[in-house]
Amino acid sequence: MTKNSSVHTQSLKIPKIMLVTCKLISLISPKLITLFASKLFTTPIKHKIPKRELDMDRKSTQKLINIPEIGKEIVLYQYGDSKKKILLVHGWSGRGTQLFKIADELVKIGYSTISFDAPAHGKSPGKMTIMTDFISSIMEIDKQFGPFEAAIGHSLGGMSVLNAIKSGLKVNKAIVIGSGDIVQDILDDFVAKLELKPNISTLLRLHFEKKYGEEMNSYSAYIAAAKATIPVLVIHDHDDPEVPVKAGIHIHKYLKNGELMLTHGLGHRKILGNNAVIEKTIAFLDK
């Protein structure tokens, strides 16, 4: 696994001033707008922890750990004290406590969870990050705190979990919720949100590939899914405005041992706290 790449689903609501800035820069130079867009693409928004997550935040044992492969530090959350551990991975601009409802239920039935603020997210230091930082963090956490019974990832976290399994993460089962899939689709969507011409998406991909020396599309979730042999549950909402449901359906299609749960009206984040989703998650883990 290489250290650097840049893949994630974007969940930004682009401010008007940013859209105007992008248009002005695009008129000046394709190279300048590509560089500007690449910076936006790798800069998550650090949100203040919402009240609903404070209980998990207070009850967790937290520590700052180093990820030698990328030379970055992350904040780790240990929740519960069972030896049966499950790894939770948040998405872009998320936090280690974002899957708190799932974590609460897992602790109730005898598991403990380990989650983390990815580099440049939550309480972790830094301003810019990339998808392979997530994957490297997962692999180092597994080395220090594993083995894990299962891994659960949301959005970019789902893509990262599948790619970590492809890179050697050993878990018995995995669950991906609202996961992005094809990298080029993610870039196309990001460029569209910036209201830039479609060709900028290609320039952006080529920029990253030149910078990091690898094909971005090699990190597409369906490619990793095709190599997974463990049971994987894919959960996605028909009305997800940020990651289209076709992504989840496509990932499931490539799994050798997959299950698919499609929901309605939950969008990209409410799905994490839905009772039916949590019940399905528990049932899948207990099979």
UniProtKB/TrEMBL annotation:
Stretches assigned to coiled coil: none
The species this protein was found in: Flavobacterium weaverense
InterPro entries for this protein: AB_hydrolase, AB_hydrolase_fold, Hydrolase_4, Pept_S33_TAP-like_C
Sequence ranges assigned to domain Peptidase S33 tripeptidyl aminopeptidase-like C-terminal in this UniProt record: 226-285
Protein name: Pimeloyl-ACP methyl ester carboxylesterase
First and last residue of the signal peptide: none
Ranges for domain Serine aminopeptidase S33: 81-176
